[in-house]
Design brief:
96% helix; 0% strand; 162 residues; rod-shaped
Length: 162
């Protein structure tokens, strides 16, 4: 009877140890899932901040281009006002500068879109890699837990049958 009690106590201790291991692994899985969520939030926050900064840069660039435009208009108008009629001059100057400004804006916008796309691709790859690593850890932990639960079940069955 005492021998059976000792075996029962040993099995209970093993069970408690396995339950503790299972709890630790579950906590680790929860932490990893929380980390993934935090990284996703950080990425979203960083992307929003970057877009806001790009909008501000765009506004400043636009203002600078407007000042450049006004400055160039003044210089060109002063130098050529004697040779060209005022109406024709304004029209041609406006068209030239507008096309130049649109070309610069188009190039700048294209570069910004490419930068943002590159950043998005890089961050997406990072998130996918983190998710892949976490999923692998999760599957490994879950397999270990299942194996331990099966071992506990087998031990209990063997001990009860003995």
């Amino acid at each position: 009877m005492a021998d059976t009690q000792i075996k029962f106590d040993q099995m209970k201790a093993e069970k408690d140890e396995l339950v503790e291991i299972l709890d630790k692994r579950n906590k680790e899985i929860q932490k990893l899932n929380s980390d993934v969520s935090n990284y996703s939030e950080q990425l979203q926050s960083a992307t929003s901040a970057k877009i806001e900064a790009l909008v501000k840069v765009d506004e400043l660039t636009s203002k600078e281009m407007e000042l450049d435009y006004k400055y160039e208009c003044t210089l060109i108008f002063s130098a050529k006002c004697e040779y060209i009629s005022q109406t024709y001059y304004y029209l041609s100057l406006f068209m030239f500068l507008r096309e130049k400004q649109l070309g610069k804006e188009k190039d700048w916008v294209s570069k910004q879109v490419q930068l943002l796309n590159d950043e998005l691709d890089r961050k997406s790859r990072e998130i996918i890699e983190i998710q892949r690593d976490n999923n692998l850890r999760y599957l490994t932990l879950q397999t270990d837990v299942s194996d331990k639960a099966e071992q506990v079940s087998n031990l209990i069955t063997e001990r009860l049958c003995s």
